[in-house]
Amino acid sequence: MSLGITLSWLVLIVLIPLSGLVFRASGLGWAQFVALALDPRTLNALKISFGTAFIAAVINLVFGVILAWVLVRYRFPGKRVIDAMVDLPFALPTAVAGMLSISSSASSRPLSLPLSISSSASSSPGYWCATGSPASG
Q: What pTM was estimated for this model as a whole?
């Protein structure tokens, strides 16, 4: 039963969009595909994506080493909580966290009202400032 549900979600979330992408790209000729791949907007998007990922990896490396050192070397109150928070991303995959985020904003959930007010009051749907008020367009 759970395998069937898992495979259904895999098909809906991963395989259908991926097959649509492959289908659309297969309609292009090689010249069009290469032209799109070498388009300045595409190259800039890749540069931003990989650059941001590299910066995040360096920051994670620095703070991860510091946190690992502190967790191994010292005893302090709340150490087990911090250790559990470090282990959480390994136990809770990103897809599960995304589904949890989506389900918490469903119309029957408490977050649905603030999110719907935000999307109707703002030119950027669903975007909230750090103050908790809808962004002004």
A: 0.52
